[in-house]
Prior knowledge:
alpha+beta; two-stranded antiparallel ribbon; globular; 4Fe-4S; 4 iron, 4 sulfur cluster binding; zinc
Amino acid sequence: xxxxxxxxxxxxxxxxxxxxxxxxxxxxxxxxxxxxxxxxxxxxxxxxxxxxxxxxxxxxxxxxxxxxxxxxxxxxxxxxxxxxxxxxxxxxxxxxxxxxxxxxxxxxxxxxxxxxxxxxxxxxxxxxxxxxxxxxxxxxxxxxxxxxxxxxxxxxxxxxxxxxxxxxxxxxxxxxxxxxxxxxxxxxxxxxxxxxxxxxxxxxxxxxxxxxxxxxxxxxxxxxxxxxxxxxxxxxxxxxxxxxxxxx
Length: 248
């Protein structure tokens, strides 16, 4: 009888009807991370390029300075950022993209298949803030790969080179002992990551910078064996529910 009572209670909870008044609008997770601070630094000679890092505060008894780490969390962990999915994120790369041979044009209207041919409450809501998409001009280098093979160093390459040099000076102080006992497996990583080294690795096809011109809001990241990030993975969300805020 005890088991039946527990089963009945569980069935009652599982079959409970969720009312509209009990639902909450999903929100984007924002705010600073505990015991750390988001900071920005600029590459030498490029005050217009702000590269984020995170400094983790260590215990005062350690006598150590804050520990700086790679921070790909974007503006969502910036205490000064105003996040609004209706407006979108600041287009930090807009001026960089306009320096290339591009033009803006009127994109096509959203089609039913873009939303999975759904309707009603399943339809993703429209956004009032829209920007005209970019496209490249014929015969001109546009992508990071095309620019790299044309010998052009882009602002994205300068950005990622600065981020790749995080903590490199401190690592070099003890590198000789580590190299003596280690195996490079063919990797050729210089003591200092220059924008030219980044360009060369992209041109050779040994690294990629995913930076579509129509995603001017993204923070450039390089992926490759000779860089800090080796793998790009997409972690999916719930298969049952998926709002714009939940996906963000």
